[in-house]
Every structure is written in structure tokens, then in C-alpha cells.
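Discussion board: Methods & Data

I've been asked by a reviewer to show the raw model output for two of the constructs in my manuscript, not just the figures. I'm not sure how much to include, so I'm pasting the format here to get opinions. Each protein appears as its amino acid sequence followed by a line of C-alpha cells. Is this the kind of thing reviewers expect to see in a supplement, or should I convert it first? Here is construct A:
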Amino acid sequence: MFPGLALQISEWLLEGAAARIVGRTAFNPRSSRSHAVATIHVCWQPDPATSAKGRETRLHIVDLAGSERSGQYAIDGEQLREGAHINLSLSTLGRVVGALARGQGEHVPYRDSSLTWLLSDAITGCHARAFMIATVQPEHAAETLSTLRYAQAYSSLQSDLSTKIPRLRAQVRSLLCQADMAQREVDMLCSLINDNARIGKMNQWSRETLKSRVVQIRRHGEELFRLHPYLKWTDVHDTKAKLAQIGLVEEVCAVPPVREAGSANDGRRIHFRESSANVCACVRVVFTGKHGHQSTRLWFPEDVLEDVSPPAQLQELLRESEKADAALQQKVAQLKTAQKAFASQMQQWTS
């Protein structure tokens, strides 16, 4: 420390203490009737040798006036008004601490009190550290309990969880933006591909279809229907095959339900044939209707269908979107775990 600086600071502290209002109450013969704040502002000069930037440090030394039950301890009207102002600033500080400790993104009322506005950077500033020393009076159990509870709420700011929760919330918001942006990119590319698709093709690529199994009918697929015991080729199958339309797999089973008489012919037989040979799985495929038309559902043997892969660029964007969603869900789970642990910690402190 520079020569004479300690002496200068000491003189300032004594000068401030002399200007402080002290009075006698029913509770304390020398009660502090005002808060006292001493701020030491140190500016560090940049180092030309290391190209380091200049920094600054602020040290706040605060002596809080005691929280009092004014109706019990005030001896006149002036002390009653002083006690109301003291309790108001301490109450605001408590609400600020509570809002920060809960880490729920709620409004922090710094401006409701000159004390909290002055100390805002000391409470939540970059690399801020705050400590509270609570003075108790064993002869007054009610005041001692109130003071300890107030100090406990303040100490929650020094908990690892209380600082971790706001950080996790910020990370969740950032990941949410990234996931939303990735989804928008997928939607935009899907729309572009759909607009440029050939007539007759299914031009309905979307996040839903990208996550589903997409298939189309093989050439000469009707030949595989001829001896199938459960399914048969229909005119609708023939139309979908000629248009090379693409559908989404809805169901795969060994034996499909029997089609009821009078129902629409979707490829299932009304009366199943007997077959001793191994029969491949049966697949129900939905073809999305266009221009307001209803979707069509048809049954196929598994070996009649071939999988259709989306464009490589679309697959890459989908993978990036899924990675962003997975990172978001993981961070949300971490946030919920931290909130649960912090709630348990606060319960232990206040019980």
C-alpha cells in the first residue's frame, strides 16, 4: 500500500463515523439510526510490458443499521420514522437477495432503495464477493432469530448453487436460441426442396417426415403381390407406383388385420390365404394428400418397398438440429436438478 494511504483512509472512516446519527432506544443505548457505507475505489494502471488492460476494484464496507420493531423500541415519533426508513431499506435488500438467490429470472428491485442501488455491482457484479457479519444479542431471542434468518438468506448468494442456477438459466436460453435457429434452417431448406421437387414426387419434406421412415414402391413391385397370402395389388397401388410417390411407414406387422367387407380396398385381402412359406412383414404406408385431399393408407409387403433418403444437406442440418435439441435437454435437466437441490438447501436453512 502507498505510504500515507492507510492513514488517509482511516481519517475518512473516522470522519464518516462522526457524521453518523446514533441514538438511544428502548432496545439499545447506542443504536445506529442510519446506514454507513465506505467505498474504496482502486484503479490499476495498465502494464505496458504485458499489454494488460487497466482494471479497477471497488471495496464497499457497509455498517447496516439494525432492523427494529419500531413500535416496541422507539421512544418518540422521530425514532419511529427513522426505524421505518431503516426497515424499508433492509427489506429492499432482503428482496434483492431473495430474487437473486431464487435464480428464477424475476425482477430484482435494485432501484427501490438507495442502499441496494449503491451496492448492486458489489452483489452481482463480475467477480463480486459479498460477506455479512451478523451481530446477535442472546438476551433478546426474537431479535437474534430474526437477524440470523436475515443473514442466512444473504448467505445463500455465496452458495455454489445460487450462482450456478442463474448461469444454467443463461446457458439454457442460449441453447434454446441455437436449437430454434437450427430448426428454422431445417424448415427453410425443406421448403426450398419442396418448391423445387419434380411434379408427382412427394414434396412434403419436414421435420416430421425426416424423423420417420420414408419409402417408395420398387419397380415391378406388383409381381411380389401375386402369391402373397394377406395382400393384393390394387389400382391405387398402381397409381402410386407410376407417380413414384413417397410415403411414410406407419405400422409394420407379421400379419395385418383382415379387411372388412365393404371397406375401402387398401391392399389387404378380405379372406386370407394359407401359406406354408415364410412371408415377409407387412407394412402400412400413408401417402400424404395434396391440395386439400385426404391421405391414403395402403398395405405392402416389406420387400416391395425401398427406403428413400433425404438430400445430404438436409440430413446434415437435421443432425445439427438434433444435437442442439439434445444439448438443450441435457442443460434443462441440469437446471432442474440444481433448482431442486437449492430448494432443499433453503429448506434446511430456514427450518
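Construct B, same format:
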Amino acid sequence: MQRSRIKVLLVSSEEVSMLKNIATAFGVIQPDSDALVITGEKFQSSSVDKKMDMATRFSVMGNSLPKDRLLVLGCLKIQGHKVAVVGNRTNDIPMLKAADVGLTFATRSTDIARRSTNIVITEGNFTSI
């Protein structure tokens, strides 16, 4: 994905340590890398300038609230980045709508989340894209 200049961010309400393991397993970050891993609380409590900087530098954000995730999306879009969001729950709807492209899975999402996206993935995984 780095050759295509796509940066994957893993942002979730889950624990940071679990997300870091997932990110490593899927190649989002390399083992023992110095990739920036933060919490939603750290992001939320930062200054506006720091948030703008962190939004482009972190790879994993855990323990985040929906408002933290929406704020990251806003920071990235203000800086001119195109943003795609994968969501499956009702609390993901604001991000799905604010993203340039919202994606959800047909089998693992709420009906209202599916209706709020641009793309519904029917195969149950990203390889179908």
C-alpha cells in the first residue's frame, strides 16, 4: 500500500495494545517500528496544531470515541487528503457520511450503516474490492 501512497490508519474504540497487534499482523505497521500509536484521549487533549500534525503521522489510535475518529477525519480532509472509512455500527454513520468514500460490509453491519455508505462489500472481506 505504500507504493500506491495509501496510508492505512487503524482507529477504533478497542484497546491500543490489541490494535497494535492487529496492525502488525496485517502489515499496517512493522514489528518493532517506531510507528506512532496513540489514544483517543491523547489526540483529543492536544492543541489544534498538534492534532493536525498527529492526524498525518499516527498509524494506530485506540481507546477512541466516535468524536475522536470524526475529528481525525476532519483534520485529514482539511489538509487535502482523500479519506475512506470502513464502518459497521450506527455510531460510525457520521464518519461514513463525512468520508470521501464510506464502506461497510453487507453481513457485519447494521442496516442503517449500510444505507449511509457509498460502497457495501458483499463478499465479507476486502479482497472483493
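Answer (T.O., handling editor elsewhere):
This is acceptable in a supplement if you add a one-line summary per construct. For B, something like: The CA atoms of residues 37 and 46 lie 15 Å apart.
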